[in-house]
Amino acid sequence: MINAPLANRPLEDFVGRHERLFVLTGAGCSTNSGIPDYRDSHGNWKRTQPVNFQAFMSDEHTRRRYWARSLIGWRRFGQARPNDAHHALARLEASGRCEMLLTQNVDRLHQSAGHRQVIDLHGRLDLVRCMGCGQKMPRNEFQDALGRANADWLTLDAADAPDGDADLEHADFSSFNVPACDSCGGILKPDVVFFGENVPRDIVATAQDHLEQADAMLVVGSSLMVYSGFRFVQTAARRQIPIAAVNLGRTRADDLLALKVEERCEAALAFLL
Could you say which residues bind NAD(+) here (predicted)? Predict the structure, then answer.
């Protein structure tokens, strides 16, 4: 494995040698847009793990806690804008060298940067879905409903946490009111894949189909500690196509990489701009 911590040239050569790159992105791609990531350079959690799907669905207090923190966190998350890493990858697609971009992020910043062929592996945070009838609504619309139902919480502020969360410590969530679905009274949940929840099979199958057409794989800003993303690297390794990664610190796939660049995503990809 070649390690290129300071120079972009090996990565530029890697990209230049391949015409159908399958790109997988993670949280490190969006940190320069003001969205915190989950893990440190060793791949360990920086804070407590995100909410679990089973807990969210079965426990009203968990849902109140989640939505109270989200009410505060969404105000900045919803205003996030693409950074140079997103724009660089959009340029890569525009040059005709990107077979598909698969993102573990739920922020839709690749699309905002103009990237067209994107698979949102873990869903999208700008939508809310009813777990009863399946109806969806824009997150901004639900933000307004949350605010109307909890006006006294709108004066609070807290540090940003990953994916629109906020670090509200020692708050009493028992009085927080979470609106139900207007159509069926069902539980409303962000249209994202929580921990403990499966990625839809059709999403996985579509991504695997595109990976089969690729001649190389590029990982950008992911430690690959979550299996839902790591399995695509395993597939690429079985196909014996070369894999490069841009990530600050350890990844789960270090022993499978042909090239690793330990640099911030926007700096490593600057040659594409």
Answer: 104-107, 221-223, 247-249, 265
